[in-house]
Design brief:
The protein is an alpha/beta fold. Helix content is 30%, strand content 17%.
Length: 239
């Protein structure tokens, strides 16, 4: 495994336009549960399956139940960035890392100091009234009783992409452009099963595709380097 990490470090040294594309595995080492692992949210017992709770139709039809789950399971306000977030900031500061593309909604990349972050699935930190579009911070939503409401009486919706909702086209386009321009793409902490985010990897034209994930993915055969280790164990080796 050390040989693979050495190769990874060499690839970074020889790259000047790196993009990092990450999923839930980036945040698990900060203590935030992922969705699809054996201990993930989707394998826990709820009155409804989490995929159903996190759908737009459920949000519309069972708003109170949605917020019960959302406040209990999506509140990442007190979590701190881990070594992976911190090392990505360092790579950005020296001009090597040009963008972070993330499927996470926890805002930890920005909390660590990353500047150029494309949040494919939105963020818990942005919330808006569905009636008058007034903005609210995350604390207001998580501390609200039952359904968070605007001063106008409208329901406040977190700016997170629910099942049945499309991604923000502008963010998705910018993520594609960043990946197309990259000379190295590091994919970390994602099973690459969530559509359409998983399609982004196909836009990479370079020859330095690195996949870092504890488990195998269906894209492993396309990668130039596969490291089946935790992200923290790999990124802590960066100088």
């Amino acid at each position: 495994m050390d040989n693979k990490i050495e190769e990874f470090l060499k690839l970074i040294d020889n790259s000047n336009n790196i993009v990092f594309f990450g999923g839930a595995g980036v945040s698990t080492e900060s203590g935030i549960p992922d969705f699809r692992s054996k201990d993930g949210l989707y394998n826990q017992k709820y009155d409804y399956p989490p995929e159903e709770i996190l759908s737009y139709s459920f949000f519309t039809n069972n708003t109170s139940e949605f917020f019960k789950f959302y406040k209990e399971k999506m509140n990442s306000l007190n979590f701190k960035p881990n070594i992976t977030h911190i090392k990505l900031v360092e790579l950005e500061k020296v001009g090597k890392l040009k963008a972070v593309v993330t499927q996470n909604i926890d805002g930890l990349h920005q909390k660590a100091g990353s500047k150029n972050v494309y949040e494919l699935h939105g963020s818990i930190y942005r919330n808006y009234c569905m009636k008058c579009h007034k903005s609210y911070n995350a604390e207001y939503v998580f501390n609200s009783k039952d359904i968070p409401r605007c001063t106008c009486g409208g329901i406040i919706k977190p700016d997170v992409v629910l099942y049945e909702e499309g991604l923000d086209e502008n963010i998705y386009e910018n993520a594609i452009i960043s990946i197309q321009k990259a000379d190295m793409l590091i994919v970390g902490g994602t099973s690459l099963t969530v559509y359409p985010a998983s399609l982004l990897i196909n836009y990479f034209k370079g020859n330095k595709l690195v996949l870092i994930n504890k488990d195998a993915t269906s894209f492993d055969n396309k990668a130039d380097l596969v490291i089946n280790e935790s992200l923290g164990d790999v990124f802590k080796k960066l100088k």
